[in-house]
Amino acid sequence: MTAHQSGGFDLTKRVVLVTGGASGIGTGIAAMLAEAGAMVVIADIDAGRAEAAAAALVAGGGKAGHVQIDVADEASVVRGCAAVVAAHGVPWGLVNNAGVQDRQLLLDGTVAEWDRVIAVNSRGPFLMSREIARAMVAAGQGGRIVHIASAALIGALTQGHAIYASSKAALLGLARASALELVEHQITVNTVLPGGVATPGAIAAKGPEPLGPGRRSPPLGMCDARDIGAAVLFLVSPAARKITNEVIAVDGGWSVC
Length: 257
Ligand SMILES: NC(=O)c1ccc[n+]([C@@H]2O[C@H](COP(=O)([O-])OP(=O)(O)OC[C@H]3O[C@@H](n4cnc5c(N)ncnc54)[C@H](O)[C@@H]3O)[C@@H](O)[C@H]2O)c1
Fold this sequence. Notes:
Number of strands: 7
Structural class: alpha/beta
Strand order of the largest sheet: 3-2-1-4-5-6-7
Distance between the termini: 43 Å
Strand content: 15-25%
CATH superfamily: NAD(P)-binding Rossmann-like Domain
Order of helices and strands: EHEHEHEHEHEHHE
Helix content: 40-55%
Bound molecules: nicotinamide-adenine-dinucleotide
């Protein structure tokens, strides 16, 4: 039976873990996955908002669970991923979406800020990928890992993004290396680059005024969280079984202007 015969975009009976799923882009990703039938587990550092986001998915007719995980903390990741496997079984998919996006000019840059941003945006996806891939490999069922990086990597930069862009560039290396190591287990690893989305995190981001090319309006208009979720849904679906180590920008056509 091909993936298409078995329901190319149908995620019924599949568990997908979405980090940072309690806010912004994560809620759009979670909604798209739930509408495709997935059991979506919201993993967030904010336990209360994770529970509320899962409840909203269930109220909308979806299947959802929640877990408190600080992706930057190894013990929290190990404990949280084990709890997810015990409660819901081995996930089919992992979406590494949790991130922080404050800005700091290079000339004002501090090691403290570098360590804080890298811990969440780079170490977090590394730890989450390691734990969930271990479970996927042991289960022998294949799987999907999707990283949420940023269109800042393809030019939609604003001033203050030296640390942030570095933290997101690390995901491309992580994806490439882990795609190579996991391909024999039928686990794919891909990356989505969102353009600007007016989320709580983006609006509240601290730092210098975000001047630069990333400020330009994209020709197709600003994306919303579900635009990012649509690309993630495709990459998580059975239909994307032959796609790994790919990068998809969802940026409203920013790159053509
Ligand atoms: N909004 C944009 O314009 C934009 C553009 C490109 C990429 N992104 C990326 O998309 C992702 C989501 O961003 P958003 O705009 O929805 O942000 P957001 O702040 O609205 O949501 C991020 C979520 O991640 C959670 N989180 C933060 N640190 C965490 C940690 N250590 N452990 C677990 N959860 C944690 C937060 O509690 C929150 O629920 C981020 O990785 C961000 O870098 C956003």
